[in-house]
Design brief:
Elements lengths: L7 H6 L14 H5 L11 H9 L2 H5 L3 H4 L5 H4 L7 H16 L4 H7 L1 H20 L5 H37 L7 H6 L1 H10 L10 H25 L9 H27 L10 H25 L7 H21 L2 H21 L2
Helix pairs in contact: 7-8, 8-9, 9-16, 10-16, 10-17, 12-17, 13-14, 14-15, 15-16
C-alpha cells in the first residue's frame, strides 16, 4: 500500500515548483513530449504522484532524470502548470533524498545557508593566503594539493555513497533483480550519456535544441578536460607549450559558453530559463568564474606578473574551493552525475525486461 504525504505539495514548492497543482490531467504534456513512450509517460505521471504525495513512487523513479527540459510541455500546457519546472524541482528534491548528509536539501531550500557556506570558505582561503607564512609558490602548491584531495575526498565520502543510495532507491528497494553481467554490459550507457548527453538528441530536433546540445557537449568536455589539465597535468606549473595552450582553450571555452547561458537566464528566452533558482545561478556563475580566473592566473604566470597580482590566484582558489566543497557535492553539478547514472540504471531495467 503506497504511503501518501499530504504535505508533499508544499515541500516540493520549496525546491522551485509553484504551479503544478493547476494541472487538470489533460495529458497534453505527455502527448507533446518527444521522449514519452508507453513505458515512460512523463511528465503527466509525475505530476499525479506529486499532487497525491506519493513520495516512495517518486523516490524510486528515474523518470525525472530522463527529461532534459526542452520546455515544450510547459509552453503548450493549457493551464500554465509548468510541468517542465516540476521535473526540474523533482530533480532537486531527489538530489536531497540521495544525499546522506542532508546538506543538499538545506542549501536548496535556504539561500542564506548557501551564502553563509560560501562566505565561510572565502574567509578560510583568504585567512590562509594572507595570514600565514607561506610563500606564493608554496600557496600555489598547497592549492594544487587541495584540488587533488578535494576531488578524491568529495567523491569517496559524499558522491559515491549518494550514488549507492540512488541505486538502492531505484533498483534494490523496488525489488528489481539484475544479474552481474548486465551491470558490466550496461556500463557503456553510463559512459555514453555522461560524456555526450545523447538522450537530449531524442528531443524535438529543432535548430535550437541541437545548438543547446552542442553547447552543453562543449561545456562538459571543456570542464572535464580543464579539470584533468589543471589537476593531473599541473597546468599552473607546467612548461609544456602544448599543455599551456590546451588549458587556455579549455578555460576560454568554459567562460565563453557560460556567458551565453547567463544571458539566456537574464533574458528568459525560453521555458527552461524563465524560472531560474539560486542554485542555477550559483552553478553557471561559479563555472564562469572558474574558467575565467584559471585563464587569468595562467596568463599572469606566463607574463611573470603573478607575484604582483597574487590576489587573482586567491580569487581563483576561493572559487575552486567553493565549487568543490559546495556546488559539486550539494548543488546543481550533481545533476550531471545522477542523470548519467539514471541512464545506466534505466539500461539495467530495460535489459531485465527484455528477458
Amino acid at each position: 500500500m503506497p504511503t501518501i504525504n499530504p504535505n508533499f505539495a508544499e515541500e516540493i514548492k520549496k525546491f522551485g515548483a509553484k504551479d503544478f497543482n493547476l494541472c487538470f490531467n489533460c495529458g497534453n504534456c505527455t502527448a507533446i513530449c518527444s521522449l514519452s513512450t508507453n513505458d515512460e509517460t512523463f511528465p503527466r505521471e509525475l505530476i499525479r504522484y506529486s499532487t497525491l504525495g506519493l513520495e516512495d513512487d517518486l523516490k524510486s523513479s528515474l523518470k525525472p532524470w530522463l527529461c532534459y527540459y526542452c520546455g515544450e510541455c510547459s509552453t503548450d500546457c493549457p493551464r500554465q502548470a509548468n510541468p517542465g519546472e516540476l521535473m526540474m524541482s523533482l530533480r532537486r528534491w531527489l538530489t536531497a533524498q540521495y544525499d546522506w548528509t542532508g546538506l543538499s536539501g538545506l542549501l536548496y531550500k535556504n539561500l542564506w545557508a548557501y551564502i553563509l557556506a560560501m562566505i565561510a570558505i572565502f574567509g578560510a582561503v583568504v585567512g590562509i593566503s594572507y595570514f600565514s607564512e607561506f610563500t606564493h609558490s608554496e600557496l600555489m602548491h598547497i592549492g594544487h594539493l587541495f584540488e587533488m584531495v578535494a576531488i578524491a575526498g568529495v567523491f569517496a565520502i559524499i558522491l559515491l555513497p549518494n550514488i549507492i543510495r540512488m541505486w538502492y532507491f531505484t533498483i534494490i528497494k523496488p525489488g528489481i533483480k539484475v544479474n552481474l553481467k548486465a551491470y558490466f554490459l550496461s556500463l557503456k550507457d553510463l559512459l555514453i550519456h555522461m560524456f555526450t548527453q545523447k538522450r537530449f538528441l531524442g528531443c524535438e530536433p529543432t535548430r535550437e535544441n541541437k545548438m543547446r546540445w552542442l553547447l552543453h557537449l562543449i561545456l562538459v568536455i571543456g570542464y572535464l578536460s580543464l579539470l584533468f589539465t589543471t589537476v593531473f597535468l599541473n597546468w599552473f606549473s607546467t612548461t609544456s607549450n602544448f599543455i599551456v595552450w590546451l588549458g587556455y582553450i579549455e578555460s576560454a571555452a568554459i567562460f565563453l559558453i557560460t556567458i551565453l547561458f547567463m544571458q539566456k537566464r537574464m533574458r528568459k528566452v525560453d521555458a527552461m530559463h524563465k524560472h531560474s533558482q539560486p542554485s542555477d545561478w550559483f552553478f553557471v556563475i561559479w563555472l564562469f568564474l572558474m574558467g575565467f580566473t584559471a585563464f587569468m592566473v595562467r596568463l599572469l604566470i606566463d607574463t611573470q606578473q603573478i607575484d604582483s597580482f597574487f590576489w587573482v590566484y586567491v580569487i581563483h582558489i576561493t572559487v575552486l574551493a567553493q565549487w568543490a566543497l559546495i556546488i559539486v557535492p550539494f548543488g546543481k553539478w550533481t545533476h550531471f552525475l545522477y542523470r548519467s547514472f539514471a541512464m545506466y540504471f534505466d539500461a539495467l531495467i530495460m535489459a531485465k525486461e527484455k528477458k
